[in-house]
Amino acid sequence: MDCYHIQGGVPLGGEYRIKGAKNSALPVLAAAVARPGIHEIHDCPRIDDVFVMEEILQSLGASTRFEGNCLVADTRNIDKTQVPREVMSRMRSSVFLMGSLLARCGEATITRPGGCRIGKRPIDIHIEGLKQMGFEVEISDEEIKARGRCRGGRVQLPYPSVGATENLMMAAVSGEEETVIENCACEPEIADLQGFMRTCGFDVSGGGTGRIVVRGNPDAGKGSEAGKMNVDTMYFIVEDRIEAATYMAAVIGTGGRAVFRNIRAGLMQEVLAVFERMGVKVRSFDDAVEITSGARLKSPGIVITSPFPGFPTDCQPQLLTLCTGAEGLTTIREEIFESRFTHKRELIKMGANIEICGKNAIIKGECPLRGNRVCAADLRGGAALVLAGLFAAGETVVENVHHIDRGYENFEKGLRQLGGVIERRTSD
Ligand code: UD1
């Protein structure tokens, strides 16, 4: 079990290049299954979730290899349609394989994705959408099996689920008619998935808006000549707005100044607006953002997480940590997941004053954090504890950093590049 040892109180500064987005790389790699070919996915983050996705692709018959930050996936020889239980239990995003396997092979079997510490995370919207599109779906205690062809038509999502939008987009490419998906999630990673799918030759439009239209081609399905047609692709993954927000919060909370390259402010407007409300100076360039922390941080007031373009739930834990040092009272309302304040107890151990009332976290600011031994319980909550360590006086040890490895490539190296004093050690 590795842990981070952090010496806090050092202002971060300098320059950092933002990596490709985890939440785009995962569905893009799943979509590579839908089209046989050699797919070069550039700017692909080297993170544990991507390594699990590689294992899934390999278990289905694909071969994958990393060359620097380019993941090369050869999906020409996919010959299995069942995602093994062991990998399915390690990553919820394996659910995407339903859509892409249905498109490629006309059938898919997955085991039920397990619960997750941040909430229940059901997949009912995925299943209902597939049924509405004409697929047969059988659910047992253990497995979910889907088969058939998409018959097209209109699917109305009851809630703009990111994963369901992506899954249904992929499944629809085998349709004989046009499929219109309404009330879609609008996250930039969905537009990015669409970009990759188009590069593969699929006819998808509207990605990134509430209405996605997929003009299916039944030949994309099993046994047809066109379905076997290889298309080799080269694709660059969109930048990771959540990684960007995390590093920016680290700079802000330590009173520093830094330039982030490979990030467009337009992808994270709401987050930048909240930082500005806290007294941070933000300068945006074509594909860079400069952050200068204010002398004193102010509370941003009330922040409510919501689907894009609202404040992202994936940045909520980092903001909560930042607000422990801001002047005034902050309310953060978590509207997307039921239990996403897992890091609160650990922050209190470090001196924070936080109360949870239902969906709201109420943070009394100007509580100086003190170093302590804390334990990460999930990906973003874990990153938020590393930030707390950087802001705190003295030494902080963050245990269970494998949660952080799921979504940040070499987090300690990035923070050290900005001047953070952080070391990774293997504890016994
Ligand atoms: C994606 C992101 C995750 C982010 C989340 C919300 C990826 C790989 N992950 O997760 O980082 O936190 O979006 O922005 O892109 N829901 C249902 N039934 C369903 C599906 C979802 O009730 O069938 C609920 C979930 O429990 C949750 C809410 O809808 O409360 C949002 O989930 P969703 O948008 O699907 O998130 P994910 O795609 O899982």
Describe the structure.
The protein has helices at 22-31, 48-59, 85-90, 97-105, 124-132, 162-171, 188-199, 225-228, 241-253, 269-277, 316-323, 344-349, 379-391, 402-405, 411-417; strands spanning 2-7, 13-17, 38-42, 63-67, 70-74, 107-111, 136-139, 143-147, 153-156, 178-182, 203-205, 211-215, 233-236, 257-261, 281-284, 288-292, 302-304, 329-333, 353-357, 360-364, 373-375, 395-399, 421-426. With 428 residues, the chain is α+β, with helices and mostly antiparallel strands. The protein has two domains: 2-18 and 240-426, Enolpyruvate transferase domain (UDP-n-acetylglucosamine1-carboxyvinyl-transferase, Chain, Alpha-beta prism), CATH 3.65.10; 22-236, Alpha-beta prism (UDP-n-acetylglucosamine1-carboxyvinyl-transferase, Chain). The strands form six sheets. The chain has a four-stranded mixed sheet with strand order 21-22-1-23. Strands 2-14-16-15 form a four-stranded mixed sheet, with helices on one face. Strands 4-5-3-13 form a four-stranded mixed sheet. A hairpin with a 5-residue loop joins β11 and β12 (211-215). The longest helix is centred in the middle third of the chain and has 13 residues, at 241-253. The radius of gyration is 22 Å and the shape is globular. The N and C termini lie close together (7 Å). Mean pLDDT is 93; it is low at 221-226. Bound molecules: uridine-diphosphate-N-acetylglucosamine (UD1). The site of uridine-diphosphate-N-acetylglucosamine (UD1) has 22 residues, from α1, α5 and α6.
